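job 3f2a | input accepted
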Amino acid sequence: MTPQGPSRRRHRPTAPAAPPSVGILDLAFHRASLATPHGDSKPERDRRRAELKIVRAGATVVRHLRLETRRFLHPPLTPFERALVAERYGAGSVERSLTRVRRAEERIRGLQRDAERGARRLHGPEMIGDAVRAYYGRLSSFVREVDPDLARLREVERFLAERPQVNPGLPTLVVAGFPNVGKSSLVGRLSSAHPKVAEYPFTTLSIALGHADLGFDRLQVLDTPGVLGRVRHANPAEAEAEAAVRRAATVVLFLLDPTGTGGHSIEEQERLLERWRAELPELPILPVETKCDLLRRPTDRLQVSALTGEGVPELQRRLRELVRPKGELPPMEEALVEAAPEVEDLPARPPKRSGRARRE
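job 3f2a | predicted structure (360 res):
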C-alpha cells in the first residue's frame, strides 16, 4: 500500500476583478431597459422610450461617478490624509483622477443633451434603435476611459479606511522614534489604544489611534511605526510615521532607548531627533528616554518605564503643559486646586414680612 503524503489542494487562480465601468454600465442599462412610457400610438411610445433610455442611462452613470468621488470631496481630505496618500501613491494622484472623472461627467452630460434633442426628431424603429445603440456605445467609451482612475480612487479609499480617522480639530500627540524603543507600550499607558506589543522591531506597521483625557479636552494619541531616519529609502511604514509627525502632530513625543536593546545606538536616535528639530522648528518635540527600569543614566531628560509606570505621571504633566490651549479654561484637576476668588460680604436681607403682618 502506497503511503499517502499530505493532501495537496489545488489553488485556483483568483479571477481578476472586473473594471469599475462594468458594474456602473450594467446598472445604467438595466435601469434604462425598464422604461415604460405612455403614448397614443406605438411610434410615439417608441420615441419616448428612446428618450427615457437616454436620460436614465446617462443620469445613472453620472450619479455613480459622483458616488465614486464623494469620499474625497465631502468633506475634503485632511492635510494628514493628503500626506498619507501622497507618500503611498504619489503627490497629486488623487487630484488628477478626480479631475478626469469630473471631465467624464461633463462629457456625458453633453452627450446626453445632444442625444435627447436628437431623439425627438427620430422616426421609425430602426432609426430609433440605431440612435440609442450609438448613444450607449459613446456612453460606455467615456466611462471605460476613466476605469484606471476609478480603480485608483477605490484603492485609495480602502487604504484610508484602514487608517484611523484623525480629527484635525483636536490636539494630537504623535509618539515617534526608532523601532523597538517602547512606543506602543507607552501609548498603552497614556491612552485608550491597545497596540500590539512584541519584543522584536517593526511590530507596528501602520499608525494606530487612542485617546487620553487631559481635563479640558480629548487628546488624540497616535502610535507610529519605527523610523530609521532614512531620507530617501524609507519603507511605507516609515513614510506613514513621517507624515504623522509633519501633518498631524500638535506635539511630538520622541522616545529614545539608551539601552541599545532595540538594535540601534543612542547616537543614531539623536541624529534623527536633531534633524526633525531642524526641519520642524515650530513643532514642539519632547524627547523622553525609555526603559529606565533597565538603565538609568545621568541626563536632564525625563526617564520613563512603560513596564513599571515610573515617570509616567510626570510625563503626563509635561504633556498637559505643552498641549494646554492658550487663553482657554485650565484643566479640571488644576481648576479644583486653585483658590476661589474672595467675595465681599453682602449685607443681610431683612426678613420677608408675611401677608398677615402687613395687614396688621
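job 3f2a | The longest helix spans residues 42-73.
job 3f2a | closed
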